[in-house]
What does this fold into?
Amino acid sequence: MDGPGASGAGGAPAGVVVVGLGAAGASLAWRLAGSGVPLRVVEAPVSSGRRTRSRTWCTWGPAGPGPFGHLVSASWPRVRLVPVAGDDVVAHLGGWRYRMLRSQDLDAAVRERLAGAGVEVEEFAVDDVAELREPGWTVVDTRPVPVPRTGRTLLLQHFLGRRVRTERPVFDPSAVTLMDFRLPQPAGGVAFGYVLPTSPHEALVEYTEFSGGVLDAERYEELLAEYLLRSGIGEVEVLGTERGVIPMTDADFAPSGVPGVLRWGAASGSVRPSTGYAFSALQRQADVLAARAREGSPLVLPPAHRRRHLLMDSLVLEALASGRVDGAGFFTGLFARNPVHRVLGFLDGGTGPADDLRLMASSPRGPMLRTVLGRVVPRVPLRR
Ligand SMILES: Cc1cc2nc3c(=O)[nH]c(=O)nc-3n(C[C@H](O)[C@H](O)[C@H](O)COP(=O)(O)OP(=O)(O)OC[C@H]3O[C@@H](n4cnc5c(N)ncnc54)[C@H](O)[C@@H]3O)c2cc1C
It folds into this structure.
């Protein structure tokens, strides 16, 4: 964990420099704008080639995400999983919703709030973050870093998504399809369709794979086309494209190593290894960081995820990557054998030990046990 940055003496708030206006940076900048904490915000210009492309962030739960509920562009009361064979698993979320937020909307809202607070977004690409340090200020650096290779398992969540329109009303706007496994499955991973419908005729449709490596550009096109066919969506008009590669790893992310500089965001391990999601964890961390800045305390990063959940994720990643568990069966079983709030609560880091035990008990025993045993039983050299 990063060491403390400089804090304001005698309870005076420390100044904060936020580097990067993505999910993490924007979340902190929103909370600090107009709070009385001296603030600078730096974002890479589009022309620098370093600017993160626009994307959609999904979260779930009773409210939120964080203070951005008013920016949610679509939400769904039901989630659906489609197994390779057999009936769909459909769950109603009760008071919860699965929600979508577009990064462009968050960016515009945060810039407006910053402008209202008299904070100008400084547009330049930071190369040496140490140069931004000033006495009494903490630099919060959210620039991406290379993925650490020090964990047991590194899978990539890679996808091609298209915002599409269809002539026929093929989508059910009350349900998001989290995973539709009617696709060829990669060895040591899993592949699925992901559908976020915004009307009977429009949706974001993605081909997503968790596996060891990315594919050729044409292969994503072929697989997405295959999914459109197999799912019955059929012919589409393409309105937009979203691509991504999200590392799913149990590796530790190194702190900045620079005094007064706090590394945060996907760069600090805020992405949940088993899901590739980070947005709601970033909201929890942003709440703590902003509160500490306001009270003039050193900015120390709270853990993004519970250790117990990280251990469970690590086992799941290893079992998937080794091919010990069949991904499609594993995820379908998880949702079919548990109440939806337990599964989604776990994936968002909200479950306690009792629910976590129930989840483990519902996962394929043999393969998971072999994965656990592989870690605790020392390997004995084979005798001739
Ligand atoms: C395509 C995609 C979709 C995702 N969807 C979801 C989702 O649905 N739900 C979810 O919870 N998580 C999702 N994630 C995971 C995670 O939430 C995102 O990666 C999230 O954007 C991470 O936030 P961040 O602030 O750490 O990084 P970013 O959002 O990438 O922000 C980093 C910022 O730093 C800026 N920057 C880069 N270099 C420099 C530089 N040299 N100088 C100054 N600024 C710089 C960038 O322009 C950017 O604004 C998704 C990830 C991807 C890649």
